[in-house]
Amino acid sequence: MSGISLSSYRRVTVKIGSALLVDRAAGLRREWLAALVDDVARLAAAGTEVLVVSSGAIALGRTVLGLGRRALRLEESQAAAAVGQIALAGAWSGELGRHGLISGQVLVTLGDTEERRRYLNARATISTLLKMRAIPVINENDTVATSEIRYGDNDRLAARVATMMGGDLLVLLSDVDGLYTAAPERDPTARFIPVVDRITPEIMAMGGAAASDLSRGGMRTKLDAGRIATAAGVAMIIASGKQLGPLSAIDRGARATLFKPSPMPVRAYKTWIAGQLEPAGRIGIDDGALRALLQGKSLLPAGVKRVEGAFSRGDTVAIMGPDGREAGRGLVAYDAADAVKIAGLKTGDIAAVLGYEARAAMVHRDDLVLSQPTGEADKRKVEGTDVAGA
To answer: Which of 127, 134, 131, 142 is nearest to 62 (CA)?
Structure first.
């Protein structure tokens, strides 16, 4: 693959497999990690926001605890994760610190990206880290997750993170250098596929099992991740991470497979919001707030005129325009009781009323879907605005 520059992307999520980061005998591959962080620092210096989804906690912990290669019981895996996560976080912090970068550890479970309230919390935390120019280092919280409530692999977790954070590129670094028509170690006639325009059933059939005993995933989980990412408009690259500086290697044209994003991404998240049959409440807004929404901005408390309903934070509410018609729907950032208290207030006055530092937006623009324009005042084209049904 050639002609691609990672620094040309605005927000890149990089997923790292356990086998790259941890050696079964020696533990953490420090030289490899240092070279990867050099790549991350280069991207950050070029203005690209980088999120890291790092496997390796259990693999590193089992090495530290001397648990060998045997299959681990659930409680042993959780104990290994607890030990390994500390070491892993310290290593990331130390290496990023060499470049003057701050790391922020974010441990998530399946529910944190699937349940709306926890989704909002996770996204707000990661967004704030990025605004502060910190590098989020994300991993599944293996110390508490069980088989029933876990992702089970970081490929799909990375895809969920990339789409949740509005990224435009997901890079899966692993011990394979891309997609082949069959497993090349078993089929010498397997053909390498440099570009995938669309993930079809034929492409999915090329998936295989995990290539390493330290890995939970395999090509199948990478293709699952690709379906999640590309459907939401996020490009994906599968590349080998075996060499030092694997991100620089991609820029130099190293073999990798590029999965193109859908030209018409399905905004499943916003479709979910717009499709709620009965909103939990209603928020009436003024003309200024409506104009701001049409310009792609968030709904601030200052533009709220009335609050109706007994909703909780994260519920879907209908946003009613000055003419009494529904202007849109969104996930509200406050419980109804607090929303009533701060309606009409400027952002700087909210903390004094509520007694705690709260979010600036009543409904964030990322959680908002506007209704189909119905009146003359609404018949305007505002670039970047999502309109339900458009």
So the answer is: 142
The CA-atom distances, in angstroms, between 97 and each of 30, 37, 40, 101, 312 are 14, 10, 12, 5, 40
Catalogue the E-assigned strands of the chain.
Answer: 11-16, 22-23, 27-28, 49-54, 103-108, 135-140, 169-174, 179-180, 192-193, 195-196, 235-240, 256-259, 281-285, 304-309, 316-320, 326-331, 368-370
The pTM of the full predicted model, rounded to 2 decimals, is 0.70
The HSE-up count of residue 243 (CA atoms within 13 Å, CB side) is: 14
DSSP state of 68: T
Contact 335, 312 (CB under 8 A): yes
CA-nearest of 78, 194, 211 to 142 is 78
Round to whole Å and give the CA distance between 199 and 222.
Answer: 11
At residue 328, the 3 state secondary structure works out as strand
Strand-pair partners of 193: 179
Question: What pLDDT is recorded for position 315?
Answer: 86
If you search the block for the tokens 């944190």, which residue do you land on?
112
Detail the DSSP E strand segments found in 143-298: 169-174, 179-180, 192-193, 195-196, 235-240, 256-259, 281-285
Cα 332 from Cα 197, distance rounded (Å): 37
Q: Is the dihedral of CA 89, 90, 93, 99 positive or negative?
A: negative
Mean pLDDT by 10 residues, the chain (390 residues): 78 92 85 96 96 88 81 82 89 96 89 72 90 93 56 79 90 91 86 92 74 56 89 91 94 94 70 65 95 93 95 90 90 93 92 87 88 44 33
DSSP 342-388: HTT--GGGHHHHHSS---S-SB-GGGEEEPPP-SGGG----TT--BT
Would you call 321 exposed, middle or buried from its count of C-beta atoms within 10 A (0-12, 13-18, 19+)? Answer: buried
